[in-house]
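Recap for those who missed Tuesday's class. We walked through two folding examples back to back. For each one, the amino acid string is listed first and its predicted structure tokens come directly after. Nothing is annotated here on purpose, so try labeling regions yourself before you check the end of the notes.
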Amino acid sequence: MKEFFNSIFQTSSERMRNPVVGSFILSWIVFNWKSITTLIFSNKIIENRIDYISQNFVDIWYQLYYPLFFTVFYVLLLPYLTLGIDYILSYAKIKRKETATDEIIKDFKDKQKIAVEERIFEEAKAGNAEISELNEKISDLTKVNEEKQKTINSLKIDIDELTREKKLLEAFMNIDNQDESELTVEQIELLDNEYKEFIKTEDASYFENIAIEINQFKNVPKSINQIVIERFIMRGIIRKIDDEENQRIFYTLTRKGKHFWKNFVLSKDILSKEDWDNEHDLPF
């Protein structure tokens, strides 16, 4: 009996970790908190609580539609919204750096003009006796300018890094738009044969979870051993993209990986709701 309940708990826990199931349950609790608190904390007897909830809190919009809308938004739309925000902010960062650099350069040029005018004025006022002192001042200003120029160069390097990051994000977004239109019949046949050999290996048991995680979040499941991930990279099924500037790592399916994923999905049978319910019915 203990093993039976442990099995039920483990199955429920695995389903709760599913992003769709977890987000739907969380949103359902948020939209139906009144009925839940009434059922748990009301002083009425349980029959009266149920009758009260049935009369006052039964609404198909709150019990199904609103939680379902929130789940669809959270699972399907939120990742793309976040990616779009990151893309927009990267452009703003570049422009802000450029504006700051332009202001610093203008300030340095103004200081150089002031230094030149000061030198002319001091020479006319003090004569040749103070020329050496002014020369020292000019030398000091030159050193300051050199330091400032180093700062400018550093800022330009930062701008170049941000530009590379922008190009990386654009390339990263374009990867998903690639298809198999450029593959020849022989290449497709070769990939199909390679897929048949791959599906027999131990790594194939991880393929579904890895491909789904990459397609949804551009990442790999944390629960899968890193050695397995490295094997997928060495097989040419997935690609690891390092963003060293922001210390981030993206993962994408290669063209080979997308072809494998297409074969994998098309090979799966989809159960009807009745068959799925019958397969997962509890014995009580």
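Example two. Treat it independently of the first, because the proteins are unrelated.
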Amino acid sequence: MNFAIQIVNKFQLPLMRYRVNMNVSKIKEIMRSLNFHPNSKLGQTFLIDDRIIREQLDFADLTKKDTVLEVGPGFGVLTEELAQRVDKVIAVEYDKTLYSYLRERLPGNVEVIYGDVLEVELPKFNKIVSNIPYQISSPLIFKLTDHQFDLAVFMFQHEFAQRLVAKQGTKQVSRLTVMAAYHYDIELLGKVSRTSFLPVPKVDSDLIKLTPKKRRPLLKNEQLFFKLVKVVFNERRKMIRNSLLNQFFKLGLSKGKITKDRLKEIIDRLEYNNYRPEQLSLEQFIQLSNALHSAIMNLNEDR
């Protein structure tokens, strides 16, 4: 069974190359006035296509009751549109020049926070609409699992988005794929051409919608599941059996409390132990984790 991904073919890549709009001259003028030069190390590239912005807003199903988080607001083009449609926008900006610029020009229902979104304490929000730099995409996804929200509409670089929606058995499947599928219902909304951004990046992007699952699969030990997924993808080219033998104590069992022979016996009894991690579905990972938890509990009772 594959990871549960919904593909929404509302628009396709060729349709997204059709024009350059008014945001180009507007953004260039602001950049000149600030003597601002985009920092490629920060992944700074700015959406200039009004049509894509409207699609993002529509997919987010915004209301006047919403508080929306925007990561990396840039020059505030999307931020201003959000502010007109919702009760409050929380905009987190890492670039000090852009932060100062936004503080002076955005409406009163926008709270601009200066800092690294991976480090700052985020106020409460119920939706997210953001164009995310590649460098922080994965850690941001993991950080957001600790926050409650209704939905998120993200623009991710194509390569990263494909890891999120990777099919079982393909090379793109990663720890990120499994963990995201555990926490969220994931929709691939459509592709966006690199020409929709300024400066033009080297790759295209995808719009992704994440909706936190109201009911997650039943796990006997959630922390063990998280550690298990991390351990096996640390050695993704190996069979799960070999990865567990090499890194079993990273799952939380103290060294010295189990013999090597007993360890092999436990792992050899596990279903899927002769698979590589990308071959397993989310459901199979959960079965593996639950079986491993039961084996560890039985081991503790035997001592």
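Answers for example two:
The beta strands are 5-11, 46-47, 67-71, 88-93, 110-114, 127-131, 151-157, 184-192, 197-198, 205-212.
The first strand starts at residue 5 and ends at 11.
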